[in-house]
Amino acid sequence: MAGRVGLSPAEIGREDSLFEVGLDSVTAQSLIGSWRRAGLDRHSREFLDSPTLGEWWLLLSKG
User: Which of 19, 37, 43, 59 is deepest in the core (most CB within 10 A)?
Assistant: First the structure.
């Protein structure tokens, strides 16, 4: 995820808002769409309402 916003992994923490560190909505929708095509059963709104890296990790791990 860090690479998507132009940061190194050491520069972004679990509590950082992905949108505040540079993730834009188009890239977010692209990522979410690719995860859905791969079988993730989550609505994009869940990710947009939970903007931190840690929250996204939980959503992805729950599949």
Answer: 59
